[in-house]
Amino acid sequence: MQSLVCLLASAAIPVDVSETKDTRFRRWLFKDYNFTIIALWSPQLIKSYESDPNGYSYNSLMDLYLDKADDVWASQVDKADIVIISGGQWFFRPFLYYQNGQLIGCHKCNEKNTTKLSHYYGYRMAFRTAFKTLLSLEKLKSRLVILRPFSPQHFENGQWNKGGNCNRTKPFTNQDIKLDGYTLQMYLTQLQEFKAAQKQGNKRGVKFRLLDTTEAMLLRPDGHPNHYGHWPNEKKLADCVHWCMPGPVDTWNELLLSILKMEAE
C-alpha cells in the first residue's frame, strides 16, 4: 500500500484526507484523477478481541469470531471500486475460535475440554467469511476483488524471536528454495477459498482476480529491513517479514497495473 502511494505520487501529489490520526487507517486523494486510496487495518479480517485482560503480547490469547467480518473494513468496503485483500503473518498466535457465538476450538491454548484446531483452520475461515461478506454486498456488483496471497518470511539462524535474521544480499534461485512447508499450506488454503469465491462471483457479477506474488517473493530474502528498520542503539528483533522500499514489494504494484489493464480491455 505504501509502495503504491509512492509510485502514484510520481504522477500526481496525493492529499492526506484521513478521517482519523490513527496511521493504520489512511486515505489519500489524488485530486487530478478523482481517485482515492483507502487503507483499512484488519490483520485477522474477522472480529477479534484480546482475551488477556493485560492486553496484547506475542503469546496472549485472542478471541476470533470465525463467522463475523471485522466492521473496520466490512462497513466501508462497499464504497470501493477495487478491493485488494491480504493477510497471513498475524494468524500464528494463540486463538480461541468462536462460531455462532459459541466456543468451538482453539489454537495453542491450554483450555480444558476444548477441541484443538490448527491455525490453518482459523485462516481458512477468516478468508471464507471475508469473501462471503464481499459477495453479499449489493453495491459491490460488477466491481473487482483482488487477493494478494501469503507473503513469505525469511528468518535464518534462529526463529524470529530467538536471534533469527535475514542477512542475505542476493535473491535465491529456483534451485535454492522451493515453496513448501507451512508457507505452501498457507498459500494453498487461501487459494482454495479464493477459487470457491471466484466461482460464486461469476454468478453474481463480482470479479475475483489473483495477484499471485507468493512464489516470486519466496526468492527475495534480500528484500527485508532485517536490523536496519530502527536506530542503531535500539535493540530490536530483526524484521524479516516486512519489505524495504524501493524493493521487491514494488513489483506487486507492477503486477497490479497489469491486472487492471487486462480488466480494462
Automatic annotation (TrEMBL):
GO MF annotations, alphabetized: O-acetyltransferase activity
Family named by the database record: Belongs to the PC-esterase family. TBL subfamily.
InterPro entries with a match to the protein in the record: TBL, TBL_C
Organism: Nicotiana attenuata
Entry GO terms, CC: Golgi apparatus
Domain of life according to the entry: Eukaryota
Stated name of the protein: Protein trichome birefringence-like 19
PANTHER family linked: PROTEIN TRICHOME BIREFRINGENCE-LIKE 9-RELATED, TRICHOME BIREFRINGENCE-LIKE N-TERMINAL DOMAIN-CONTAINING PROTEIN
Domain Trichome birefringence-like C-terminal: 1-258
